[in-house]
Predict the 3D structure of the following.
Amino acid sequence: MITASNLSKNFGGKTAVNNINISVKKGELFAYLGPNGSGKSTTIKMLMGLIEPTEGTVEILGEPMNLNNIELKRKISFVPDTPDIIGKLTGNEYLNFVASIYKMDKTAYTEKRKELVNMFELQDDLGTLVEEYSHGMRQKLVVIGALMHSPEVIFLDEPNVGLDPKSNRELKNYLTDYVKQGNTVFLTTHTLSLAEEIADRICIIYKGEIKALGTLEELGEQTGSDRKTLEDIFLALTSEEDVHVQEHTES
C-alpha cells in the first residue's frame, strides 16, 4: 500500500531525511515516531506527494506518487500537524468544499458526514465561522474532512493534539476499526501510549534515519531485553549517549 525506497530530502545543505526504506501493508496501522525535528513531517509530505524527494521513490496503492498525481491523491487523505483552515468559511462550507474536491456522491457524503460530525459532537457548530473555533474544534473538523471520503490510505500527523479525551477515544476506536476493514493508517504521534496500544508496527526515526522498525516485541529485542515499554525503547534509541553506544557496538 505504501512503499518508500531510498527516500531522502535535503534542504539547502541540511539533510532532513536520509535513505528511508519503508513498506506498509494493506490493513496495517503503522506508527512513525521520533523527536521534534527528526524528519517525520518531511517524510509524510514526500509520501503524500506534497514535496519532491531529493532522492528515492514513493508508491501508494501500487502507483508512483508525485506532485501531479491528482487521481491517486483522491484515494488517500492527510491530517496535518496544524489544523490550518480558511477562517472565513463556516464548518458546513469547509466540509462541502472538501466533498467537492474528492467528488463525493451526495448520498454517501450526507451519511458519512453525519456519522463523523456526531461522533466528534460538532453538529451544533457547523454554522459558525471557523475563525471562531477553538484549536480542538478545528482539529475535529480537519479530521472529519479527511475521513469523509473513506480513503484507502490515511496519513495522520499528530491528529490527537488539541482533542479532548472523549474525541481521542473516538478517533482511536475509529482507526482501529478502519484498518480491520482493510484500510491503511500511517500515524505520527508524541503520545507513545497511543502508538503502543493501537499500532501493528512501529518505526522510530532519529535525525532523519530509521533506528528501529518492527512490532513492539521486535523493537524490545533490538534494544535489549530490559526495555519492555515503548517509552523505554523510544528514549533508548533517541538518547545521544545510547545511540552512540549502539552504533559503536554495531560497527
Q: What stands out?
A: Residues 84-150 form one domain. DSSP finds ten helices and ten strands in the chain. Residues 241-251 have pLDDT under 50 and may be disordered.
